């Protein structure tokens, strides 16, 4: 196609939402009308499925759950018995945050809360982190910090930097089931730090969890400051507009009503049962075309805006955890998914775009363009050219260079980064994932593969307990194979080795004797023996 | 293979460097001895090429350059005329940093420098960012901030947060050529902020650039505080052990001698011309096996340690910019490369590991394990189990779960995160990339594809200047096509549209008239007309 034909294609396929000031351009995806027409029946089904989901069907059959994140933005659509819960919860969050900001709720030993420490992982961290980075002002009412892992050194770093302000720090612990080990561990480490300083943890702690969960029980027993519900029908990776995202965003002074309104407006737009007029359908269509409905191409997400740096990491979870499935809904083995990565432009042009432009063509790109460069006017870097013009030029130039080299791309354009547009972006990709899942016939709302690693870890920790018990009760060094035998794991020498190697590095009394480069010849001893 | 056979394979292939306390385990890559033997001749060539490179051969033929980042760690290996430059530069950095820390060099209006603002992009940012995050203490002697883009809003955020400390902020501007637009723009924006506060920018500014570059000239004319050289024979993505990385690391109080020593030790180990005893060769072998020498599998890098979060982003550049090439060294079209992504474990297990475990099998994983959980002892979360045990268990469990599902992985294990081990990790992957490049016969040291996007951007900015000139001299609104014709770009209506849309959003006098959803029907006006 020559440039004028491409311009016509741009016009033909451009989606524009006036209300949101949002454009979606799929003109640089190389599908043709015939191919689109052949997919119409699949889309008709997807629109129907999505409609049923919004009516409260069991859209997550494995877990026998409704999927209701769309109701959070428009409670009138929710089943009658849920509507009030949604509305009341938002009111409750606002009332709580208002009191925190004004000092009506305050910590025992400080006039006001100054910091928020958010403990949570996965869906309980990525949304809040993305929204914080995108939308918090340069000097928000409270400073936020995240513990999103069970890494002791990482926890220590956060707690050490906060040590002089723990007494004025509000701790939010977020876990839907209340049993996520990383979150439970983080909470216990934080609690320990409070106790070390003689502070009352409960007076600083807020739970975000499902009613009836272990954490709900703990919170009640210990009398925490507050609790906000996670709903059974909201999954972790679509929980940004539930208590998970709204509480921390409100605390940071972000206008959550605008975020909800943006998402609601996008939800409305993405209900349109016509591909060309539905931006989520256009995205799903493009993804399907790029990867042949099998994820054959990676999705490289490059927002040209520093504040959207975490968008690709957020989408990594939303897309990969939703679509990356072994079985389809009929039980066939399909190994679906789409790999997602990216950081930000034009920075990435100085990192991996060399490969995108010239190297292996195993991807398609999603550019996110923000029209407003900054709040206010810019200095000129060269006559009639600003820093923002360069950013704009690099985006357009890269899009063009990729296209000329037969690499497809999508461009999403928003007027500026606001709570409204960020809410709309989240809703746009949520719906695109939902539609794409129907096209490829997978359950987008469960994550069965996450359990395998957890189970294996549980087995390992069980083995560790046995090893420590044996070592403590033996009064001489053991050969590795001998130790494995004694704990009833003769076939698990590698695991036994890994466990004692890790214990030996962490002041746990275990000492390894011999040449560390020859693990099978190591002796394992316990401290009381060595001393 | 059963678990005992796997244990034997683990022992057979385990690489251990006692000096560094570093293990490399490739036992979960499914190659066999016969396949390895068939590759021996290719490796023999790679070892020879690497040797020639270290002797000063023109290893980057397109740019007619030597490739000398290995000399930075062992100046005795450098050509005689370069040795002194390396040694003297390190001395100079140390002397400068010592004076900054002690106040011997101080800003005009403050007793001491309190902050560092690093302006640079790509290789001039990713290394310093990674090393800062990995190694800086919780309270370093100076706080560091980065401007690594030409995003006006991103620049404003950094400068606004720093506004009360600009007078005690040291600005490092890093650009090898001195002509990188993003860095030049960032520098001008920062300079403008200094001028707005009536501060003398030059008295706060340090240049890191090549002698004779535009920035070198500017620095001399304006009399900046200091300048440190970038050497012609060090590429951006391998510049962490040059002035680029050493200056900022030293300012943060990081022991750069230990970092260099760790890299030197690894360099020594990776010169061994025997695959099984050379960890970089083992990595390159594994990558080659995973992707069939064509990058058919993505490389997913998951360090189980918060402080190593940016390692995958650092490797994204190192690997993708080095290997992602259209042509091989003989001019054949090959479209090489390996896509890299990842964040950290176990956090990623709650994000995209669902897809890794069950979904599309288009990747191999590299786990990075750190044996020491934290500095000091841990509380018990459950009897005999700590937070760190969980982290360890999740890594081992995920490795096992992936393997059982026929997904291969590599595990790199270090004793702890120190300047020495971080230096070793950088050197390990640098050499692995160099060896792999020889295996697939590409130039790992140039980046020709980066130019295409830049050129297209330059053309666009040229078009913008013409558009503004025409609009300023016309006294009535123009149709889009008319405007395109007037600037001599009748075939570039799309570009013209994008330019005026961007200008209209940024207080540049341009106004778009009509329905924004129908770009071809828009009128374009200039402010003076509208008023």
What is the element layout, followed by pairings?
The structure is a homodimer.
Chain A: H1 3-13, E1 15-17, E2 22-25, H2 33-54, H3 80-102, E3 115-119, H4 126-135, E4 143-147, H5 152-161, E5 169-174, H6 181-196, E6 205-209, H7 214-222, E7 226-229, H8 243-251, H9 256-269, H10 279-291, E8 298-303, H11 311-323, E9 340-341, H12 353-358, E10 363-370, H13 387-404, E11 409-414, H14 419-440, H15 450-473, E12 478-479, H16 480-486, H17 493-504, E13 510-513, E14 523-526, H18 527-530
Parallel strand pairs in A: 3-4, 3-5, 5-6, 6-7, 8-9, 8-10, 10-11
Antiparallel strand pairs in A: 1-2, 2-11, 12-14, 13-14
Helix pairs in contact in A: 2-14, 3-8, 4-8, 9-14, 10-14, 11-14, 15-17
Task: For the record, give the distance between the C-alpha atoms at the N and C termini of chain A, rounded to a whole number.
Answer: 79 Å
Beta-strand content of chain A: 5-15%
Helix content of chain A: 40-55%
Order of adjacent strands in the largest pleated sheet of chain A:
1-2-11-10-8-9
Mean pLDDT of chain A: 96
Oligomer: homodimer
**Helix segment count of chain A?**
18
The pair of chains with the biggest contact is:
A-B, 148 and 149 residues
State Rg of chain A: 26 Å
Low-confidence stretches of chain A: none
Shape of chain A: globular
What composes the largest sheet of chain A? 6 strands, mixed
Classify the secondary structure makeup of chain A into a structural class: alpha/beta
Count of individual beta strands of chain A: 14
């Amino acid at each position: 196609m020559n440039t004028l034909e491409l311009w016509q294609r741009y016009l033909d396929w451009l989606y524009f939402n006036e209300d949101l000031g949002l454009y979606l351009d799929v003109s640089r995806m190389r599908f043709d009308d015939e191919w689109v027409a052949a997919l119409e029946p699949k889309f008709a089904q997807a629109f129907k499925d999505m409609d049923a989901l919004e009516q409260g069907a069991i859209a997550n059959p494995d877990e026998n759950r409704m999927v209701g994140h769309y109701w959070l933005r428009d409670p009138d659509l929710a089943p009658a018995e849920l509507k009030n819960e949604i509305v009341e919860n938002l009111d409750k969050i606002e009332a709580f945050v208002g009191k925190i900001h004004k000092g009506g709720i305050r910590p025992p030993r400080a006039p006001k809360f100054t910091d928020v420490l958010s403990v949570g992982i996965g869906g309980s961290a990525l949304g809040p982190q993305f929204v914080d980075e995108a939308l918090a002002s340069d000097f928000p009412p409270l400073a936020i910090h995240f513990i999103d892992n069970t890494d002791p050194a990482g926890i220590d770093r956060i707690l050490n930097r906060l040590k002089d302000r723990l007494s004025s720090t509000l701790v939010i612990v977020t876990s839907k089931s209340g049993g996520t080990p990383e979150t439970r561990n983080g909470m216990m480490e934080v609690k320990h730090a409070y106790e070390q300083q003689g502070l009352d943890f409960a007076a600083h702690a807020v739970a975000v969890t499902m009613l009836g969960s272990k954490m709900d029980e703990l919170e009640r027993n210990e009398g925490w400051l507050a609790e906000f519900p996670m709903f059974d029908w909201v999954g972790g990776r679509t929980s940004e507009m539930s208590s998970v995202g709204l509480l921390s965003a409100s605390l940071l002074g972000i206008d959550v009503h605008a975020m909800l309104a943006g998402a609601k407006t996008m939800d409305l737009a993405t209900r349109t049962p016509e591909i060309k007029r539905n931006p989520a359908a256009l995205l799903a269509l493009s993804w399907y075309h790029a990867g042949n409905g099998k994820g054959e191409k990676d999705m490289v997400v490059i927002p040209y805006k520093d504040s959207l740096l975490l968008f690709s990491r957020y989408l990594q979870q939303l897309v990969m955890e939703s679509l990356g499935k072994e079985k389809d809904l009929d039980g066939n083995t399909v190994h679906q998914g789409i790999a997602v990565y990216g950081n930000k432009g034009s920075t990435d042009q100085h990192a991996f775009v060399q490969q995108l432009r010239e190297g292996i063509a195993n991807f398609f790109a999603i550019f996110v363009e923000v029209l407003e460069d900054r709040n206010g006017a810019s200095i000129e870097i060269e006559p009639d050219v600003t820093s923002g013009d360069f950013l704009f030029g690099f985006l357009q130039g890269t899009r063009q260079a990729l296209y000329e080299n037969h690499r497809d791309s999508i461009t999403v354009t928003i007027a500026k980064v606001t709570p409204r547009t960020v809410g709309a972006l989240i809703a746009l990709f949520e719906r695109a994932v939902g539609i794409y899942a129907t096209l490829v016939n997978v359950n987008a709302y469960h994550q069965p593969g996450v359990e395998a690693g957890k189970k294996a870890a549980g087995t390992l920790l069980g083995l560790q307990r046995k090893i420590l018990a044996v070592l403590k009760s033996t009064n001489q060094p053991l050969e590795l194979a001998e130790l494995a035998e004694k704990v009833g794991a003769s076939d698990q020498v590698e695991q036994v080795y890994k466990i004692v190697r890790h214990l030996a590095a962490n002041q746990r009394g275990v000492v390894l004797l011999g040449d560390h480069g020859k693990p099978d010849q190591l002796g394992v001893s316990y401290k009381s023996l060595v001393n």
